[in-house]
Amino acid sequence: MTNTRSLDGQSDKKNSFDFALWKKALPEHIMRWPSPWSDGFPGWHMECSAMSTKYLGEQFDIHGGGMDLMFPHHECEIAQNTAALGHESVHYWMHNNMLTINGQKMGKSLGNFITLEEMFTGNHPMLEKAYSPMTIRFFTLQAHYRSTLDFSNEALQAAEKGLQRMQKAYDSIRKIKPSTTSSLNVDELNTLCLEAMSDDINSPIAISVLFDWVRNINLLLDGKEQLTADDLQKLQQLFDLWMVKVLGLTGQMEEGTSTERLSGLVEILLNLRMDAKKNKNFAQSDKIRDELSKLGIVVMDKKDGFDWELE
Hints:
- With 311 residues, this protein is α/β, with parallel strands linked by helices.
- It has helices at residues 44-56, 70-85, 116-121, 133-141, 153-172, 187-198, 203-221, 229-246, 259-278, 282-294; strands at 22-24, 40-42, 60-66, 90-96, 99-101, 104-105, 149-151, 252-254, 257-258, 297-302, 305-310.
- Helix 1 (44-56) crosses helix 2 (70-85), helix 4 (133-141) crosses helix 5 (153-172) and helix 5 (153-172) crosses helix 7 (203-221).
- The longest helix is centred in the middle third of the chain and has 20 residues, at 153-172.
- The protein is elongated.
- The protein starts with 21 loop residues before the first strand and ends with a strand.
């Protein structure tokens, strides 16, 4: 590929697509080592080949980087590694796509550059609130790593609610009463998640499979579907595997607070509300519901109890 940029040393090349393995250091350059060719320093591509070979060996599985590094950087690495070693070093190249903010490319010059620390603290003019590390993790996993990922408050808040819904279902598995037969095939959860992650780590599809089972968990809680004790145990194990161990979506939603604790506290209050309704203390019942609503917790009365969700 012919180089279209104006770079130092281009006139010294035999071909425009050649790249430097070693660069001669100017007198004022701080990086300089003696060599048969000059006092100088390795080219950018050579630095990476040297480091990966030293620390990972002549062959290793995965090399990551942004899509902007595919050419020329990674192609040059492949060329020089193959020439030096007689074979390619990397089995799988994984290139992630770019981040955008409200549809704009992220950049300091545009004033829309947000660090992870700023997201965790909410200390940035473009952020409406702070977001937990798990929310950010879940948000990024909802897009394939080779797709453009657009940050916005609306998208982050939707991810926060989605993760809370998934965590709530996960915490509810232990509340499902076992039956003598199963109306759902739990093995499908494992099969479909494995297929998704085997397809170039397609995390969005794996998450959609887990959300299908969030719906199934709610049906199980309502008694509209049923599982045996063995299948319930398998369901718990599979959520532990795919949600927690593979995707890394632990129970930690906010610093020092887990969804399991939140669920426990909300249900204590809602059980007190049920007692108040039984005793015809409707003023107390309404007060508990209204106070929870102010905290963003929507209470839904049902024929045989209650349910709730975060707004």
